[in-house]
TrEMBL record, chains A, B, C, D:
This is Dihydrodipicolinate synthase family protein. InterPro entries: Aldolase_TIM, DapA-like, Schiff_base-form_aldolases_AS. Gene3D superfamilies: Aldolase class I. The active site is at residues 136, 164. GO terms for biological process: N-acetylneuraminate catabolic process. Pyruvate binds at residues 48, 207. Belongs to the DapA family.
Length: 307, 307, 307, 307
């Protein structure tokens, strides 16, 4: 079932016309940009997509528009993360009707659950879903880290087909890899800086935010890691780290990464530079930094024929 | 403006018919129970009301039904906490139309804002609201503690009329009291164990969860604190701590308090023992403990003529 | 046994001649300053005393010199906090030989213990001590908060006579007060901003850092709280909060409080402005702020005849 | 300078005769066990060595005895982590006199420093040391994570020659690798589960606790990673994860890893099963689990000729 899920599945940024309104044309544009870049799937309504900041109307529109524009060229994964399971199920129903291939959910993120409660929540959710479910470990936002034991127990549900880990903790990732006894269970990593090494050590791919900007780079890196091509890995890793360093750390916000991705995307003509409230785009002086840094990055990517 | 807000304003538990469906008759029952107990206001859709776990339909129904049943006998405060400002505003509009007196909002709780971003978020929200706003500091759930400086800056917005602090940190509470230079700015405290002392030191009242069970106890304590009646304070504080100790610490869940309030409320005939997903009611053996402990508490409350 | 411990027991700052060398004459000076101010005891080698930053030679000298200068006029409490129980015991032996009245210890603060391990640690320590022991809850530094249950169990050891809580969480403090069934068990609070309210609610006193600067202010506040004299409490609380606001929050360091107390003490002629490595005194511009703020504070204290 | 530091440098467990007394003969035994296993260096007085729990006498004895037994066969690194810089320097002096090759220090771990203060602390320490210094990032114990920027600035000090990262966060590790512009700056990783992948991605080796038990396994893994020998990596990674899973997670203590290493070492005849206070060895039933699990591990290691 999850065999189809591997490689680079970017967490698609959400194109907006203001700090709340969806940009329908922007959705078409970015979907084509990603597929032209060779990505293996598209994930909407994740953290990078600012899912929980959007109105439900905007979330529903985004699901439909993305499905419409993908036209089944690559798998579509839809985030249904919510504090209310009823609203998660509503989004999942629409995702199914729109032709999505799987849904993705973090733990509920207001009340702090224990591991047993987390297990019961996910098991219940998976029972009630008609699409397969990816678990999404995101402790910095949700205040809870799914234990390896909980993940192992959940991996036995036939409708739970994989896990995306955004903890950046590869000890945890390796423990999952070792402990989950199911060959068709897909393990994806969030942070792009460690996508190569997790694939080298048995991971199935990356949900890499930078692929919104330069999809080919991350696709090539995934392929190099699968092929154990260390010469290429070394070159591309430097470029991936350059992007993370020059674009995601401006301004010392907790959301510098999100502001950086969207700011750079706007300079590359991929979408407007609006973030949904409560986040805001970079200030002008910060955008000047992004602009200058982007020029450096583009020079290096051109040298490697990656743009 | 906020002069009307003082005393005991319980965070009303949400009566349910299942783990998702609102109990309309239950709303009537608990509203009357609280008003009969002498409370000075009612706050729906707070943490104790499991707000973010409810579907939006249930939240809307709850607002309307509560307003309908209060019939303007006491002020109604409505929680509009959300990760999406659009959805907060939708709830606020309905609250206003239903006759509510104020709204209450925690910071957005998925993305971690900085203090400046938090200030801008609240200022923007207050600008767009038609009802007055209470800030709600709830760091254990939202991952952010509003700084004293941010609260001081926000207190200058004419539409922001008070703050409810659930941090349990009274150094913070005293710093707010000292720093906010506006006599009509209302400071409420969350944890009932420290309601008396914060009122003694200048606070305006408490959003005390235990008042769902025994409203008279907390109303009497508020009055004793206002009157500096230490003989009464001493007696009642023992009972308030007995309730917290015997009802809120069973089972070592993060949500032992919520399970305890609702479990005890069901035994007292106030509402059913359903919690909204992802939380669940206490197990049978835990309910046996609650039942036994409740008997002890009732003996003591009867001795003080508080039930 | 602990009946003798009540009131204001300042956590004495450690006078230094450099960032590591003890100022023997400074010890005499500050001891007399505190006793002249009416304090009910002196606590050396606490957090405010920068205990763990000092060499063991300096710690030993400080114990001996303080005892020598106190001359039994008030009780002496000695901090023996350490990650090595052997070194704690060495300090305790010297404290006893020097004439100290009790010792004080936080949990070990490198390895994170569980509650059962914490209980065993303290029980073992108390067994091996010849002086009575105060528990010291200091979660921000030690990464562990002693549970109420652990404190209750430890309160049954005949050699454990009290607890100092620096958590700032008065829900916790009230739970201790309610749960510890021993009239001669002394509960002290750390943060001076909440000393009055904890004494009003049954606490035994405060380990107030500001008493290094203005001992009379905190002694008067303690007396006012014991007497339920709210007129005085209101006036003094404003001054106590003014001190905390104007002296302890400069420069946004984690150690702004420590830098502020020592900086102000140096301006008041109480001791030199050296902090032990790794901390450093305020920069010149920060000292200018402290100096200006101190003038304001002194005007208000003079109006109340407190200096 | 740091060219000599690479490969497997185990954080040596400290052999004890009780919960406080050093086992001199045990030191000889384990030193030879490690060197016979092919390790590239030995690190004493780290977290695994329970450094901060030992009396200073025991620490001094351990430094001397280890140096005496190594007889310059491999480099010796000595932990000088302390809350008092004076005591760190005392240990460093003895380390130098005993013939150690480098010292290692975490940040001070009682007071929480800011990044600028952390920079100044380490720069000052490096200035005053006569041996080269390894930085040691250990946020779970010290409450502070050294920022990449701080590490970059510190890497410019000629006496700071490397960094050991125990954060388990490989995004951080990759950022260090990318940002530190000095070829002879050695980057070591703590958790053994991710040693292979960090070496594949440019790391210099591992400070792997499990090497106390099975040094050859980790040495072979290091060599396989350097050689990009994925067939071997796959086999050994499974064994490394089996050890971590079966030996380090018994009993749900924060210190399960430490208890597990020492418990297993005692069963393997490497040293006694004493931990320094405040930690304690596993209970009997937990040791039974360790014993059973160890048998499974040994079967697998024998199959691979690693014991």
């Amino acid at each position: 079932m999850s065999q189809q899920f591997k490689g680079i599945i970017p967490p698609m940024i959400t194109p907006l016309l203001s700090n709340s309104e969806l940009d329908f044309k922007g959705v078409e544009k970015i979907v084509n940009h990603l597929i032209d870049g060779g990505v293996h799937g598209i994930f909407v309504l994740g953290t990078t997509g600012e899912s929980v900041s959007l109105s439900y109307q905007a979330r529903r529109d985004l699901i439909e528009q993305t499905a419409l524009n993908i036209k089944k060229r690559v798998p579509l994964l839809v985030g249904i993360t919510d504090t209310s399971i009823e609203e998660s199920l509503n989004l999942a129903t629409l995702a199914h009707e729109s032709g999505a291939d799987a849904v993705v959910a973090t733990p509920p993120y207001y009340f702090s659950l224990g591991q047993e409660e987390l297990f019961e929540y996910y098991w219940d959710l998976a029972d009630r879903l008609t699409l397969p479910l990816f678990l999404y470990n995101m402790p910095s936002m949700t205040k809870i880290s799914m234990s390896v034991e909980t993940a192992v127990r959940l991996s036995k549900h036939p409708n739970i087909i994989g896990l995306k880990d955004s903890s950046a903790n590869t000890v945890y990732f390796q423990a999952l890899k070792y402990s989950i006894d199911r060959v068709d269970f897909a393990l994806f990593v969030g942070p792009e800086e460690i996508m190569a090494e997790t694939v080298l050590m048995g991971g199935n791919g990356g949900v890499t935010g930078g692929a919104n900007l330069f999809p080919k780079l991350y696709v090539k890196m995934y392929e190099a890691a699968v092929a154990h091509d260390f010469e290429t890995i070394k070159v591309l890793q430097k470029q991936i780290l350059e992007i993370a360093t020059l674009l995601y750390t401006i301004g010392k916000y907790n959301s510098s990464y999100l502001k950086g991705v969207k700011g750079a995307a706007s300079l590359l003509g991929i979408c407007n530079n609006y973030l949904a409230s409560p986040l805001k785009p970079f200030l002008d002086k910060e955008m000047t930094q992004i602009s200058n840094n982007l020029e450096k990055i583009k020079v290096h990517l051109k040298e490697s024929s990656l743009i």
